[in-house]
Design brief:
Elements: E1 8-16, H1 20-38, E2 45-51, E3 54-62, H2 66-73, E4 77-80
Antiparallel strand pairs: 1-3, 1-4, 2-3
């Protein structure tokens, strides 16, 4: 069982409008760069197209990294990350 501090948190950014898909894909690249620069514990990112005008980008952080990352990147929302979901 993971320690409480190793709980994975999925931070999510929503993009809406006709350019949402491209914006979400592009923002993911910036998240990947941030993970490397900040030496974060996990390197899990992704994007998903929910409709033609709504896409999301996400990254997964360890719970102990959450306050700092949240203050810097200002995600729209977050949830507990279950591997593969």
């Amino acid at each position: 069982m993971d320690k409480v501090l190793d709980k994975k948190i999925k931070l999510i950014w929503d993009f809406r409008g006709p350019g949402a898909a491209r914006t979400a894909e592009h923002y993911r690249k910036h998240l990947e760069e941030f993970i490397v620069i900040e030496e974060l514990k996990f390197d899990i990112t992704g994007h998903k197209h929910l409709s033609p005008t709504h896409s999301i980008t996400f990254m997964v952080v360890a719970e102990f990294e959450l306050p700092e990352v949240k203050d810097i990147l200002k995600p729209h929302r977050g949830e507990v990350y279950l591997d593969g979901y």
